[in-house]
Amino acid sequence: MTTFVLVHGAWHGPWAWxxxxxxxxxxxxxTLTPDLGAVGDRGLHDDARTVVxxxxxxxxxSELVLVGHSYAxxxxxxxxxxRPDAVGHVxxxxxxxxxxxxxxxxxxxxxxxxxxxxxxxTSGNGRRVPPPPPQAFGITDADDAAWLAARLLPxxxxxxxxxxxxxxxVDRVPGTAVHCRPGTYPFDRFGEAVGYRTRALDGPHDVMLxxxxxxxxxxxxxxxxxxxxxxx
Length: 232
Fold this sequence. Notes:
two-stranded antiparallel ribbon; six-stranded parallel beta sheet
């Protein structure tokens, strides 16, 4: 039995996976969707501890696949670094990733960081980043955009300013970097730089909302890999 720990990105919540959980369950997998939370002055390390707690709740006989969307790519790699023997595979879905000491503001262009800081100062009391519109996540369908706009939450600034603390243990865990096409940021290169195989998937940044079926099939395919090799 495979358990997918599905970790949402910035401004999102566990509801981001609502459309992908049913096809994963139909394929025989279990899922956990930890809530990174949007209340309080949280940072990347707080989020990683939340994911570690989710990992610790999974029975050892289950094959565990850790999935991080967007910002959560950084979170799941720090969590996997803390529990390398418990995680069978890491999957980044359009995920930010880098070596020890990487964070959103070290990986993203300066213009991104400048815009985030400006929005935080003008509308977020200097500590919280107001959510961008659904179009920023590639969601253009009117119904999907309305669904997403009603759920997006302010994001604590510290999640963007903190950088990962990695011992190198995460490098023992095989990984896959799913990058969406057309791309917004070089998520394929981020994955390659940390040694992950890359897979392209046509769809927007929030592909789990628009193409849950294809993404679910891609996630199930990662469960057939162990230590970077397909199991037979």
